[in-house]
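Data card: per-record layout.
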Amino acid sequence: MIQTLIIDDEKHCCDNLLWQLGQYCPEIEVIAVCHTAAEGLERIREFRPRLIFLDVEMPDMNGFQMLEKLVSHQFHIIFTTAYNQHALRAIRAGALDYLLKPVDKDELYIAVEKAIRSEQQVTINQLTALLTQTGRNADRSFGKIAFPTIHGYELISMSDIVFCESSSNYTNVHLTGGKTMLVSKTLKEIEEILNSTPFFRTHKSWLVNLDYALRYIKGEGGFLVVNGGTEVPVSRNRKEELLKYITHLQV
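The structure for this 251-residue chain is written out next.
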């Protein structure tokens, strides 16, 4: 649940938005409805929400002026207004989205989805950093990495990762037991998290846990065969470094 404030001087707009959020956005928990910017500032400092729906035009103090009263903020902003001339300024203020009144339910749903994805990304980065650091400090053993799922987060032991395959801005993470997870991180981001032996970047699109390598097949770059029989390509510019690792294992 994302704790949320609604700040708008028009009661009927607040009531309509509150109803739509209840009907279409169950992830949103509205903890207060404020009808002035001054009240909004008080509630922000009191509740520390993760999301606010903020009207632009309000008496005494508009939405932009209200934000200027805050030294810093840790919440997402979705502006709601009857006037579209404020869009550029809203973007410059770091708004997550900008909704014109009367708020359309489909546009509202899309804006809330942005907030959910942003919250998930913040959480996954925090969890991953913590779990990775914990794993590396424990006698250099591998820790865990948190992958987002529709139910929350799945904590996977790094030692269970067989190989990772790039898929545009996503990565297919292949685990022991034949399980595969599609993760909304680039291969480069995952490589930075798994930045230690036995993980080796064999190719621009492949990252391999060498503990699961079964054999190397010679070729221009060659292939690594990993558990399960998958042939992972090795690029020419990575071949020499990989062979150095393999020759150290010779008996």
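Known properties of this structure: Residues 142-247 form a domain with the OB fold (Dihydrolipoamide Acetyltransferase, E2P) fold (CATH 2.40.50.1020). The mean pLDDT is 83.

See the next section for split statistics.
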